[in-house]
Write a structure and sequence with these properties.
Elements: H1 2-22, E1 27-33, H2 40-52, E2 57-63, E3 83-86, H3 95-106, E4 110-114, H4 125-131, E5 146-150, E6 153-157, E7 170-176, E8 190-196, E9 208-217, E10 226-234, E11 240-244, H5 257-260, H6 262-277
The structure holds zinc ion.
């Protein structure tokens, strides 16, 4: 009996070792949404689909009470997650959630700031440090400088004026400004993004850590006439933070070109892994867009 127990236990240990070395347990993440001036039911579902279809991530969706409702019951247990996707632009969270979020980020949590999440919370100082650049919500010179790319470097421009605008949606070329960051390593230096808004004239504390992509905002489309920073990491405590200004949600999962863009989906997938682990193991996919041609994944599935 004694012998049986021993071999049973060692068998258990062996199978546990085999299980842990052979299985790739999906990395747990949470999408925070529920209020947005955008179509959040579509954006949150699209993000969940593209991340989970890779087999690399398992996603929860934390949906806040509706705008104007009592927010006091809204909470997220950040300790359960390797990364957080912010798809939220609405009423302030309860103070306990603010504190829990800041503690999570300072302690090394991963955060993807997605599209209009950088419109949120203009008056919350720490949040604005985490996003580095924000727009709308009466942001102005008091929010921080305009930040854009000029003559081979980032410029901080303290000219007074409103923060945040965009011209008409169009396809545009993404220009990489970094060749070594895990999120864009191996990807082409220039690629065409599907029809989307191009956020410009953003302002904030502006402490960009690694600038990954900029794009030209043409005046003829209603843009700033500047090379705008659209994807970058931010230093805040030990957090791994990446800000992705792309991805305006469409009317439905089917009518959603900015989020169907293979380039956008690859950025989200790689950013999620980097946020969760500090590394990216994903290969460059066969359908990645080129400088000349947009590439879509209408099924939100990786290639
Ligand atoms: Zn938008």
């Amino acid at each position: 009996m004694k012998h049986l127990c021993k071999s049973f236990i060692s068998g258990m240990i062996l199978s546990a070792v085999i299980f842990s070395s052979c299985s790739h347990k999906p990395l747990p993440g949470v999408i925070i949404t529920g209020q947005n001036n955008h179509n959040w039911p579509v954006s949150s579902e699209a993000i969940k689909l593209m991340l989970e279809n890779s087999g690399l991530f398992s996603m929860d969706v934390a949906i806040s009470p509706s705008a104007g409702e009592d927010m006091s019951s809204f909470s997220v247990d950040f300790s359960k997650y390797k990364f957080v996707v912010l798809d939220y632009n609405g009423d302030r969270w309860p103070e306990t959630m603010d504190e829990a979020f800041l503690e999570y980020v300072r302690g090394g949590g991963g955060v993807i700031i997605y599209h209009a999440a950088d419109n949120a919370f203009p008056e919350w100082e720490e949040y604005n440090k985490i996003i580095a650049l924000g727009g709308w919500g009466d942001r102005n010179e008091d929010s921080g400088p305009y930040v854009y790319w000029k003559d081979g470097g980032l410029v901080k421009d303290t000219t007074p004026g409103p923060g945040g605008s965009h011209g008409a949606r169009h396809e545009y070329v993404m220009n990489s400004r970094d060749r070594v960051h895990p999120v864009l390593k191996g990807l082409p230096e220039r690629w065409k993004h599907a029809e989307d808004e191009l956020y410009d004239r953003m302002r904030g504390p502006g402490d960009i850590k690694d600038l990954l992509y900029t794009a030209w905002a043409p005046v003829e489309k209603g843009g700033s006439g500047r090379e705008e920073p659209l994807v970058f990491t931010v230093g805040y405590g030990k957090g791994r933070i990446i800000h992705i200004m792309l991805g305006h949600a469409g009317d439905s999962l089917e009518d959603n070109p900015a989020m169907q863009c293979a380039g956008f989906q690859v950025l989200m997938l790689r950013s999620a892994e980097w946020c969760a682990t500090g590394n990216v193991t994903q290969k460059v996919p066969v359908d990645f867009p080129t400088e000349a041609e947009v590439s879509l994944r209408p099924d939100y599935k990786p290639r």
